[in-house]
């Protein structure tokens, strides 16, 4: 029986978390690792409270797990700090080189490997392009970020560069926890923003329904990084498929349990990105999404 840890910033009760962990377990089973037979998984969820992640990571170390799967940037950093010698498979981490998690994508060089979330400035640039295409005459975009998420600093730099190229003005608002979301969006509305870009973050995903509802009430077309936020009522998302990344993470787990070293396993980057559009939300906002954009969408929620 092999024992691994699974560290997440979100909630165990959240349907998206259950779907993702299910994709992970399914991929493991296809590789011959069946939970309860030859594999035990210790799950730790921070319930959106990132300050709990270091304690949860340390708890997994005390459980003597053979490796830790860490979903998203804050979880990966907490796992790295708690487990300097235990292999870590990160999933959906923005800028792992800049954050010091790895030396390079090709040669991680330490005990961390896995999957990155972004490909440089490409993702934010594309998200802003799609917003401009969807919202005629777009000039002012509100950006919602979490200052507790270390990857958001570089994402903001990318967004500012892209905005200059697209002739857009950005207005940044911060929220560290769910109690700050309402006031953060109210600040964006006061700046007369015409659309909203939400950086990918576990806390934002956990409270995606609240975000989507307030954005709709404020008549703000919104762009996200994950499809779950669009399914909850957001207008659009553009980004990698997180379920696919969890399935790929199972491959890293398989190799490490069979003796591979994280330092020798190159970090993978997304090669496929999905555009999801919520046509119902567009109607609520009184918008007509351009036919060309709908044609390119991987999925349209009617």
Report the portion of residues in β strands: 15-25%
Instruction: Sum up the overall morphology in one term.
Output: elongated
Count the beta strands.
12
Distance between the termini: 46 Å
What's the helical proportion of residues?
40-55%
How would you sum up the major sheet? 7 strands, mixed
Mean pLDDT: 94
Element order: H for helix, E for strand: EHEHEHEEHEHEHEHHEHEHEHHE
Alpha-carbon Rg, integer: 19 Å
The low-pLDDT segments are none
Class by SSE composition: alpha/beta
What is the number of helices?
A: 12
Strand order of the largest sheet: 7-6-8-9-10-11-12
Itemize the secondary structure elements and their pairings.
Blueprint: E1 2-8, H1 15-30, E2 39-45, H2 53-62, E3 68-71, H3 73-82, E4 88-93, E5 112-116, H4 122-134, E6 140-145, H5 152-166, E7 169-174, H6 181-190, E8 195-198, H7 202-206, H8 208-217, E9 222-224, H9 227-231, E10 236-240, H10 242-257, E11 273-278, H11 279-284, H12 291-296, E12 299-301
Parallel strand pairs: 1-2, 1-3, 3-4, 4-5, 6-7, 6-8, 8-9, 9-10, 11-12
Antiparallel strand pairs: 10-11
Helix pairs in contact: 1-10, 2-3, 4-5
Overview of the molecule:
This protein is of the alpha/beta class. The protein contains twelve helices and twelve strands. The strands form two sheets. The protein has a seven-stranded mixed sheet with strand order 7-6-8-9-10-11-12, with helices on both faces. The chain has a five-stranded parallel sheet with strand order 2-1-3-4-5, sandwiched between helices. Helix 2 (53-62) packs across helix 3 (73-82). The longest helix has 16 residues, at 15-30. The radius of gyration is 19 Å and the shape is elongated. The chain starts with a strand and ends with a strand.
């Amino acid at each position: 029986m092999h024992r691994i840890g699974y560290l997440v910033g979100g909630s165990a009760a959240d349907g998206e978390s259950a779907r993702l962990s299910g994709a992970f377990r399914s991929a493991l089973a296809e590789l011959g690792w069946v939970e309860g037979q030859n594999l035990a998984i210790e799950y730790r969820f921070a319930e959106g409270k990132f300050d709990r992640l270091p304690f949860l990571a340390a708890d997994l170390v005390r459980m003597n797990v053979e490796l830790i799967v860490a979903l998203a940037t804050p979880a990966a950093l907490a796992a790295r700090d708690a487990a300097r010698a235990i292999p870590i498979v990160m999933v959906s981490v923005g800028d792992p080189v800049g954050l010091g998690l790895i030396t390079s994508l090709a040669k991680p060089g330490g005990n961390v490997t896995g999957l990155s979330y972004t490909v440089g400035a490409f993702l934010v640039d594309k998200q802003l392009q799609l917003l401009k295409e969807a919202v005629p005459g777009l000039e002012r975009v509100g950006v919602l970020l979490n200052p507790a998420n270390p990857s958001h600093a570089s994402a903001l730099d990318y967004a500012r560069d892209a905005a200059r190229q697209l002739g857009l003005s950005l207005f940044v608002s911060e929220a560290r926890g769910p109690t700050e979301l309402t006031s953060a969006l109210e600040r964006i509305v006061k700046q007369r923003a015409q659309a909203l870009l939400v950086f990918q973050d576990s806390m934002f995903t956990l409270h995606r329904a609240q975000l989507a509802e307030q954005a709709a009430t404020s008549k703000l077309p919104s762009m996200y990084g994950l499809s779950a936020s669009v399914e909850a009522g957001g207008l659009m998302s553009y980004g990698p498929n997180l379920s696919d990344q969890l399935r790929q993470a199972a491959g890293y787990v398989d190799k490490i349990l069979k003796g591979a070293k994280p330092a020798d396993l190159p970090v993978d980057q997304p090669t496929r990105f999905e555009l999801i559009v919520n046509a119902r939300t567009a109607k609520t906002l009184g918008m007509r999404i351009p036919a060309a954009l709908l044609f390119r969408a991987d999925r349209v929620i009617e």
